[in-house]
Amino acid sequence: MTARKGILRVGRDVLIIALITAALGEVSLRIYNSVDPLPIFYSGNPDRFRGKPFAPIWNFHLNSRGFHDVAFNARKTPGIIRTLGIGDRFAFGVVPYEYNYLTLVEQYLKQSGHNVELINMGIPSIGPKEYLSLLINEGFVLEPDRVLLSFSISSDFGEESRRRKLLDYSYVASLITYVVERWRKFEGPISVGTYDDDAPTFTDDAYLRLELKRSTIFVRNSRPFAGRFAEAMSYISEIKRLCDSRDISLTIVLIPDGDAGQ
Prior knowledge:
Layout: H1 2-35, E1 56-57, E2 60-61, E3 81-86, H2 89-92, H3 101-111, E4 116-120, H4 128-139, E5 146-152, H5 171-185, H6 204-214, H7 223-245, E6 249-255
Parallel strand pairs: 3-4, 3-5, 5-6
Antiparallel strand pairs: 1-2
């Protein structure tokens, strides 16, 4: 009986220490995140996914607004045709700046004799609702002649993962989940060293699990997907309406899920 009480006492002490440690960790992470916000912690603000101004990515640095593009003037140069590239990670690009498809589109148009400027405003992990917000809050003031919206069929129909999970309420749990998922899925950093287009971003098993999860968009007569589709289209329709009211052309590019994040 005495031995049993000793075991229970030790277990109680360990539990108390664990709870105190978790509480201190929670407070510390919340204080740190209030000073230097990190995307691994839940927030309703899409700017948590925006790159930090001048942050390095491969052989390039983000501009002062945290976009994966060169610096640009807010006031449009007379005679130039300005296009805003809006989208998620596919527009932002994990490839070096010179290989980003928006960069290549701009170069092609210039080489074809067009006086154009294509501003990449892509932000990873955002969707149609945030595209609309970004356009209203930062896009229209740049006086664009066209909006080039990259719509990802793999994520812009409102993935289930966009919904807030129970673990998201805890910063400690979010950090642990991030570390575990990174260890399981990623084979190495994507923006350090020399770029290799053939290097994998995910392990084979992680890639197949991700694609299996996303394949639910092909299920016929899916009521959950029908709702997510309608919601996404409502934001796209509003973007179209606002562009039309300002005489701004809108081009929508459908991005396939060919490589799950590249």
